Amino acid sequence: DQQVKQNSPSLSVQEGRISILNCDYTNSMFDYFLWYKKYPAEGPTFLISISSIKDKNEDGRFTVFLNKSAKHLSLHIVPSQPGDSAVYFCAASPQGGKLIFGQGTELSVKP
Amino acid sequence: KAGVTQTPRYLIKTRGQQVTLSCSPISGHRSVSWYQQTPGQGLQFLFEYFSETQRNKGNFPGRFSGRQFSNSRSEMNVSTLELGDSALYLCASSKGTSGRNTGELFFGEGSRLTVL
Asked: What Cα–Cα distance (Å) separates residue A41 from each residue in A79, B9, B90?
């Protein structure tokens, strides 16, 4: 069963606009959430994380929002840049457990 | 600081064969995790090793196995290869000192396996 779901396989955004990537999870035991970015022919790299005790974490152009009641998190990129074009994976982990990844969303930022 | 190194980067096997993939974690990292990436399935967790012990295991058949050595280097093996095993196999390391393998995982570039 897919405990972490990214229902949009792809997203296309104009440069300078906001990119919103969404992720849903089913396991209420998850208490730590992360986003990773992956370019072709490279391994995923850590982008930003959030603990379940928070509902927002910001790092430069990247902000992650967590809605625990809806079991939903989102990644906002503002403003979007062509270099942000990549596959984005959300991931979640319960206390002491393994990191579970979603299927990924391919973001394309057009100039 | 050297990153996570995976070898080989690319390999082609035929059905029924077996394959061994290698991963050298970042120096000082004691936890190594393996993931399988296929289109549409994202990153599927295979297993995690910490101090030579398997700490977590995903839902893969017994044909998939792994081990970790005293220097934290890890290998994974897939026996009796099937066409569906064609994928990118990613290794990731972390300090994992608290028993909670969260936070940043540092990934290698992966080993691309093609099964014909």
From this structure: 25, 10, 11
Confirm if B71 and B86 have CB atoms less than 8 A apart. Answer: no
Q: Are B88 and B23 in contact (CB under 8 A)?
A: no
Distance between CA atoms of residues A91 and A32, nearest Å: 8
- The answer to whether B51 touches B69, Cβ cutoff 8 Å, is no
Cα–Cα distance for residue pair A32/A78, rounded to 1 Å: 23
Is B100 touching A (CB cutoff 8 A)?
yes
pLDDT tens digit sequence for A30-59: 989 999 999 988 899 999 999 999 999 999
Q: Which of B38, B102, B107 to mutate to test the interface with A (most CBs of A within 10 A)?
A: B102
B109 contacts: CB under 8 Å, gap ≥ 6? A41, A42, A43, B6, B9
φ, ψ at A82 (rounded to 5°): -55, -35
Q: Is B103 an interface residue toward A (CB < 8 Å)?
A: yes
pLDDT at residue number B2: 72
3-state secondary structure of A82: helix
pLDDT confidence of residue B107: 94
Q: Rounded distance, CA B73 to CA A6, Å?
A: 32
More reliable by pLDDT, B1 or B114: B114
Alpha carbon of A78: minimum distance to chain B alpha carbons (Å): 23
Given an 8 Å threshold on Cβ–Cβ distance, is B103 in contact with A41? no
